Structures
1.
Amino acid sequence: MSHDSDLDRLGDLVAEFLAEHPVETTEPSAFLHARYRAGLAWVAFPEGYGGLGLSRAMQPKVDKLFAAAGAPDNNPRRNGIGLGMAAPTILAYGTPEQKSRFLEPLWCGDEIWCQLFSEPGAGSDLAGLATRAVLDGDEWVVNGQKVWTSGAHNADFAILVARTDPDVPKHRGMTYFLCDMHDPGVEVRPLRQITGEAEFNEVFLTDVRIPDAHRLGAVGQGWEVANATLNNERVAIGGAAMPREGGLLGIVTESWRTQPENHTPELRDRLLKLWVESEVARLTGSRLRQKLAVGQPGPEGSAMKLTFANVNQRLTGLDLELSGEDGLRYEDGDGWAMVRPEHVDFSGRDAVYRYLRAKGNSIEGGTSEILRNIVAERVLGLPGEHRVDKDVAWKAIPR
Amino acid sequence: MSTVDVELLDNEVDVDLRSTVRSFLAERCDPTEVVKAYDGDRSLTQVLWKGLAVELGLAGLLIPETYGGAGASAREAAVVLEELGRAAAPVPFLTSSVVAASVLLAGPTEAGADLLAGLASGERTAALTVPLSVAAFSAAASSGVSASSATVRSVAGALEADTLLVPVATPAGIEIRALSAEQATITPVSSLDMTRQLADVTVDPAAGEVVVAAENGADAVRSGLLAGAALMASEQVGAAQWCLTTTVEYLKVRRQFGRIVGGYQALKHRLADLYTSVEGAGAAARYAAGALALGSAEEAEIATNVAAAYCGDLAVTAAEEAVQLHGGIGMTWEHPAHLYLKRAKADQIAYGLPGAHRDRLGALVDI
């Protein structure tokens, strides 16, 4: 079916749906569940799981139609990890039962998700992780510590990777689980960052019990499944559709325009360089999405994320410089007070906050150094790094 | 400042066109032939240009069917230029089929229409007589020659052209006159990039015939130079892609200290960064071509400034990285890397420096 006729059909479907479920008289949660069941949630997902099996390119159009009708949304910012990472992974590797159980409450925002991947001893070397899962009857017993878990304090479920076989090389001994964050063995502690606040957490897992039915993929397949998640994460981070001068560039250009007293030719040329690079990144993102409309995210998303981190950090640094003495003040909210934000939002915050928070952009979701390795190896086909731990049983690796 | 929807990937037409041009160049544009231009042998240019312009019919790509052209758009021209850039091909496609054709299309007189038909068929080749370094938005673009100042230095495409498009300053404005090459003195210049060799041109401003009248002349020059900058970005992308691909291939086979050199992280990271920038350049150049094709004047200019500012520096970086990462062999005459370094550095200066494009962009986007 052609793009245009899909578009017409979608328009009709949304209109029909809105006629049957008037925005004014339908309770928001009921509206969202009905939208999911009508296949108008994430239209690229298959029928029966909130979608219609259409191209990803259709999604913004559907969202726009619903937004124009004043329909309630599923507050996607609150569940970024659920929507951007857990959902596509569950769709790709889940059993029919898992898909039916998890996708609908996830999309509707009834269940919020977080990601239990990184550990104190497994950052860039994620595959070296040490959290253990041991089968006991038809349940797995999980023990270990996770870190950098954004939103763990609000989450109902987590995507979790744990070691199930320490006797085989590290990449082969992991398994992927869907973990109930309300299990009594889950303890969430805030982790304070350089901004002063605690957006992330440490998560301690002590005898957490996960039913085998909540294992995603085969035992030992965890690395492959985790990579599907990570590729989606990098697309989610680096590839969001954006208008020209959107995002951080918009904030910094506004800053420039409202502080003419601080203008110098040097600052102007640096801002224009970043304007150009942001626009190029925006266009690269558009092209990547045109490519994704016909396939799955691949390692190219890593290149997007590299650019995004680099441009953000330079923009936020420049913003402080072009703010004169205001660049020296941090009066955002309670200053350095430790707070627990619901989500990361660069707008409406102090420039100092943005400068500091952007430092995380080249660390979270894969450091820029690891991403360069990924681009070099998986896109350009250059040789892999020397590895002393590759064909060694995980338990024999020094740590 | 509203953006336009541009298909940023090759569509079926683009894929066919690209493969036609690529296989033509693979067969006839060997680097060992291209390099001979630096030793005074320009014979490849003639053969190649005849093949591309007449056999493949590419000279009339941008020219509407009413003038006998192919009636394609800047999108298709961009695909051709990516391939020409990849091969460092010494042909006047950019100077004649893009810049000169765009000048004429801004408002041809009857004689101008005849010339367009000649360009479209590939029988004639033209060059705009302004220095290659002039940007569309610069004061020099609208000065024009006069009896007292009738020599124009550093003109690209003049050596290949049978017709010169000369902007002449008149009381009514700039009119564009077409002179035959015989009516001018064309002196070849030993150029940084001999695959687009420059010439100093001296003309009689009263000679030839008017092809764009004074009321349209200044706009015509700007339009030609803008198209030049917009589409040269695609040439720069092609050159950068060649540099990246060739360097990656070399580093996959070169061994030192018992290891494949491309396995060293210091080099992998440089290539990953280069890949990232080349991808960005590809998107920016295609968008500029698309915006130009859609004919939205302000958006085309913004997109061109973005692409020119980004691709101009990027192609130089790519060529410099290619020379460095090839080690000693990259410094030799025998290896083609220097063809791309010279082309990229010259292109960076052509039609306005990246910094000048940024400055102009700033004026357009209120920065």
2.
Amino acid sequence: MTQNGDFRDFTALKKEKFNDDNFATITSIEQRTTENAIEKCFDRFEQLQALNAHTAKLYRDEHCRYLSKYIERLPQSYECLDCSRPWNVYWILNAASCLNHTFPEKIQNNIIDFLIKCRNPKGGFAGGPGQYPHLAPTYAAVNSLCIIGTKRAYEAIDKDSLINFLWSVRAPDGSFQMHVDGEVDVRGAYCAISCAKLVNISEEVEKELFKNTVEWVASCQTYEGGFGGAPDLEAHGGYAFCGIASLVMLGGTHCFNSEMFLRWSLYRQMRFEGGFQGRTNKLVDGCYSFWVGACIPIVQAIMAKENIYDAHLLKKPFFDRRALQEYILLCCQKPNGGLIDKPGKPQDLYHTCYTLSGVSIAQHCENSMSPLILGCLTNELLPVHPIHNIPPMAVVKAYMYFNQLSSEQAMSNDGGRTSSSREASSETTTATTTSSMSEELSSSFDGGVSISN
Amino acid sequence: MSDNSDDELMPDWIPYSHRPEWSDVTPLAQDDGPYPVVQIAYSEKFSEVYDYFRAILAANEKSERALKLTQDALQLNPANYTVWQYRREILKDLKKDLHMELEYLDNIIENNTKNYQVWHHRRVIVDQLNDPIRELPLTENVLKMDPKNYHAWQHRQYAIKKFNLYDDELAYVDRLITEDIRNNSAWNQRFFVLKHFGFTSEILGRELQYTTTRIKRVPNNESAWNFLRGLLSQCEGAIDQSSYVNDFCEELYESGGRFVFLLAFLIDLNERRYMQCEEESKKAEFYKKIEHMCTILSTDHDSIRQNYWQYMLQRIRSN
């Protein structure tokens, strides 16, 4: 049964505005300015709703048109993202998946060809053709190719050279550089692990490649409970996601403080705005709908697994899933397509991707068979995988493809002799590597994310 | 993403194709393939500069003119990590004076304070010079414009750790907290410095007082409460310090304080007491307190997190 959520009472909500304790500082002044801009959106909506009860609408067609236009051409203002071109592809593809919009086969093939142009002969993907390989566009390219999910797309990943690239950016302490001689932070670990998992690397390689990585990532958790980009840095929504997702993928969730993490994540939801901030005492930003929004069901699933007696108490997500959808629907949509950080900002692909995937998490994270949809029922988005942020099916299909590939390789290494025992053991390996992830998540994500059979 | 036209940035621009000293180089166009996607509408200047950069990169030319060219390319897109990496190779090859590079970077960083690549380049150069003399003033300058700039704090921590520059940092942090008591980055930096010196009971006592004084002044400031929690986590076994915090919270509550972070703190405090208590009547008393606080948080003071407060109550009850 689909359940229709209610909006909050905007009049009663006014008491939730920031209390500055009669002690104004730059933080409280900026906070109030932001709240006033958001209040205007809420007030406008309340009046319009009195005219027409069906105004709370996701502008599907407009967003799809925006994505369809940008998959081909981007304006000059995107010159600053000239080294993030696979990111532009990924943001468009994932946002489109949320909206259940698929691109024609011809465009999909053009995307594959373009990403091959970005691929370095020695492995890994670069920000654009001819640039050096880098972990962030590698993650974006691998995710994009998994979303497309054809044999040609999987082949374009070129698993063997990808793994060589991952080795080339690994640091001895288990952390990862973004590129050879590049900067180190938790993004590196997350991108590397996510790619390695999607191409289903063998257990032995995983153990070696990510030796000490769990400990390094865990050392980025701060006294506030979230993760910083590196040890001692301030807890931050983006790094918090990378941190917890890395620990889940490597089966290292016993190494961090989940209670502290949960509380810190929940406190990022703004009581008036409904959206999330990325750090304590910072402003709301639509992109944290995903970065922090996804952290909450993930950590609840971890806690449910750690303590089976409390598991039933942890089923219901603890953040306000309506308030989050309200913020995105009423304050972050551009009528001509695309979504934004906060009122007054221009639309861009990054915010379009992460606001939509955040809303998708909010709608589906309790149980994918009964989503919580705010406003029109047509606002329902398709689910995303909370760890990889691509459709759950895309994750499963990639695992299956690369598992098949490795057993075929094992067979041909055997000189063509059919070795049933080897085949069987390779299947078992896959089952264990994938189930560690699905078990963590199964309590919160019943349908969409169960990976094991 | 700004829509600054490039001409504004470089008024006396002469295209590379008109420069005699570049006449021997054939520009190399970007190979996007026959059917490109996410194709950016580059300005003519952007395309030309990068066509020449690609030619230089392909020829592996490390020269003065190549170094200048990277500067033009980086002005157009300071996020191009390939150009930065290649620039480092040229600097090394030509044995350039890296102090000049720092000066160049001062300017670039000032205009691109939220860019990963410029800060990384800075770090590599400082490592090579092995001299942090300009790093604290530089980050201080950037933090003057934006006291929460993550990259600036990261660079500052790097310099402090690597060159042991902790001594005056607490005074700096204190100044920032005085300017904006809600600056969470400054509070985080405070914790970073204290961790280095070690949480002795003397330091803990001083810091608890510092924090509670600031909570009294601005009781809805999450940064200070989180910091207090952080300090308390370092008080394992230090009974005096723990009871100082307990007394502070209970007094605040008794005098009518119903601040969200105070209530949350008291729930944790009473949960600990409840778990440790053997006496049934006392246990019930702690539970009643917890129940009351969870209830007023979920219905009134913090209803956006009502599911969480209801969970806290149920969890404590089930234990």
